[in-house]
Each structure stands twice: as C-alpha cells, then as structure tokens.
Design brief:
With about 150 residues, this protein is an alpha+beta fold. The chain contains 3 helices and 8 strands; from the N terminus they run βαβββαβαβββ.
Amino acid sequence: MEWKIKSFQQLSPNELYAIIQARIHVFVVEQACMYQDLDGYDQDSFHLFLQDADEIIAYARLLPSSTIYKESSIGRVITNKAYRGKGYGHELMKRGMAFLLEQREEREIRLQAEYYIKDLYKGYGFEEVSDVFLEDGIEHIYMVYK
C-alpha cells in the first residue's frame, strides 16, 4: 500500500477511475444518496489517497483557497468499508491537513462535515461555524480549522 498525493493532471486513468468508483460506492451506494459527485472541482484539486493494487483504501480531495471557499478545503473524505477502524482515516486527515498547511502554506481549512461525525473533526481542531443544514437529505455543518 502506498500513500499518494497528485494533482488531477498527474492522475493516471486507472487511478482516476478507482477514485471515482470509491467515491460513488461510499457517497451514492452506501449512503443511498443520489447526488452529482463530479462537480467540476476535481481538476483544480489535489487528490490524496491510499491505494492497494487497484483498490482505494482511503481518499480525500484537497482544494486550494478560493477554489470553492475563501479557505482551502478538505472534502470527499472516505475510507473503504473493509478498512474502517484501522486508522487509515486518521492518517488521511493528518496527511491532508499537513499538505495544505505546510506544503501549500494555507492558513485555514474549511470542510462540510456530516453532522453525526462533527466531534471527529473537532478532534483535529476544527470548529463549528454554521448551523446544521441539509445537503442531499443528510445533516451537515460547516467547520473551519485556523
């Protein structure tokens, strides 16, 4: 298994396919939520993932500031169901935050958290900055790390 971080242009067709497949599996199939995953921001993002052969174990999309929000952003955070509870999600967040804060020299990170796991993100230093709202029928909240 190997952690990778690549711009959209650096992704191979097989890596891109595996990422999209993993995102659809978690967000559309597991959560039974019909939504448009391909939103036009992937091309301006960095893609952090742990891959084992052709399978994505963990993934996050890292967006520079002023892409979606004025702050940089972490989104599309997933861990493959077969690998949950083994620390890969924690390592994913640590690596994603370090990349944005240290390598990209961003000052703030915004995320749109599913409300039921907001305390997980609080553990990384994120603070709630909005009321709860529905996104595709799921309760969410905006959180920011400064």
